[in-house]
Amino acid sequence: MTPSRAELHEHLVRTAIAGDVATSRENNLDHYRSLALRDPHYTFGLTFEAEWTFHDILDLMARRAGVTADPDHQEGQDVIDPARTIDAVEEMGDRIAKVLRRAAPRVVVATGHPTGLLAVHLALARFAADRGAVLLTPAEGWTYTGWPGRRRRVRYLNGVAMLEERGSFVHSHDPDPMRAMLAEERPDFVIADHGWAGAAGEAGIETVGFADSNDPALFLGEAEGKIAVTVPLDDNVLPRYYGPLTAYLLDRVNRSL
After folding, report:
1. CATH number, domain at 2?
2. pLDDT of res. 148
3. Which InterPro entries match (predicted)?
4. What is the pLDDT of residue 202?
């Protein structure tokens, strides 16, 4: 069943998808500093026109994700504002609906978080295909040496791209796989996270994505117009916890078609 906005708000807080999340304040601030230094592990394949200092990034994340704005709050609990999560989910739903109103749009779906967000991406891929989208699967089997020095390959599960290493799907921030996919076939629209989303947005493709409070790159990309929508949430809770959020998102798409 599709939850109401109030019910989804309660669910997000109860399951720590938003509200008091597991990602610590120390981890958030460390990643903001790393992105300010343009560490490629945290840029997700994006480049930025603005300087984006640490304080700029913290200010943006407070406005877009709802993390604590006070720079003197250095450790302990941090938060994601569930209202901001739901607002972004609704905006994402409207974007997806606009794409699905086209005739046979070419779509790529990808995730760097197979232990969590894969559940959402599988549902989105199936929904899009059922409504006439063409799910592209470029660069299947493409291999490279990813961070930290491991051999990985692109594999698809029911239309969702992920990275495989030694028989297991793995977590990744790398933009290189999406770059390889785009070199082979260019979609009209991308639904993704991490480097998959960043590389697509950097290439000028309309992209919507999900990002945790310790992954600020996509929010900066959104602020500079390279990412269409970024949904703030904890990206690695139990997969079944994303069910109500997914139902709310798909209902939003249906009502906007």
Report:
1. 3.40.50.10490
2. 73
3. Phosphatase_SCO2771 (IPR031423)
4. 98
DSSP states of the chain: -PPPHHHHHHHHHHTTSSEE-SS-HHHHHHHHHHHHTT-HHHHTT---SS---HHHHHHHHHHHT-----TT--SS--EE-HHHHHHHHHHHHHHHHHHHTSSS-EEEEE-S-TTTTHHHHHHHHHHHHHTT-EE--TTTT-EEEETTTEEEEEEEETTEEEEEETTEEE----SHHHHHHHHH---SEEEEEHHHHHHHHHTT-EEEEEE-TT-THHHHHHHTTSSSEEEE--S-S-GGGGHHHHHHHHHHHHHH-
Do 117 and 235 form a contact (C-beta atoms < 8 A)? yes
Q: Which residues of the chain have pLDDT under 70?
A: none
Kindly state the tokens that stand for 113: 């978080």
Domain region containing 37: 1-257
pLDDT tens-digit readout, 43-96: 999 999 999 999 999 999 999 999 999 999 999 999 999 999 999 999 999 999
pLDDT value at residue 24: 96
- CB of 240 closer than 8 Å to CB of 119: yes
Percent of the chain with pLDDT over 90: 98
Q: How far is CA 152 from CA 60, 122, 143, 170, 174, in A?
A: 33, 21, 5, 9, 11
